[in-house]
Amino acid sequence: MLKKLFGKKKEAPTSINVHSPLTGRLLDLEEVPDPVFSQKMMGDGIAVEPSEGKVISPVNGEIIQVFPTKHAVGIKAENGAELLIHIGLETVSMNGEGFEAHVSEGKKVKVGDPLVTFDINLVKEKAKSTITPVIITNGDDFEAIEKAETGDVTAGESQVMTVSAK
């Protein structure tokens, strides 16, 4: 009855394109100088060495986690892929200093929406690296994660991964 009134439920896409959340240089995850990421302990993905301190949403979806220290954000994409954007390496020890979150859990986001801004010079000074891994934490639920070639990327414009459902 309600379906007749409101139409069919919109089907989730089976495949999504993941755009770069930062402007900078795209790296292979294996190049990240932290074994938690380079050995894919948290999942497969890519990394970006940023040239500016602005992180935008790489997908359409919903914010599922904003770390209290604002150095990491979790997003559930429309096809169910869960992405973790971890700004810099060993940035948790900064306790949020230099980071400003623009979203909270439960917020719907579209590609290009601002997530976090950060003081890139402060991160360079106080953390191990500005390299930002972007991980698909539930990659085992998907058929394939295809990654773009390394090189320069622009936030919200450059496609860095395609995640395809089984």
From TrEMBL:
Gene3D superfamilies: Glucose Permease (Domain IIA) (2.70.70.10)
One Pfam family linked to the record: PTS_EIIA_1
Entry's Gene Ontology molecular function annotations: kinase activity
GO cellular component annotations of the record: cytoplasm
This protein's UniProt keywords: Kinase, Phosphotransferase system, Sugar transport, Transferase, Transport
GO biological process: phosphoenolpyruvate-dependent sugar phosphotransferase system
All residue ranges annotated as the PTS EIIA type-1 domain in the record: 34-138
Location relative to the cell: Cytoplasm
Protein name: PTS glucose transporter subunit IIA
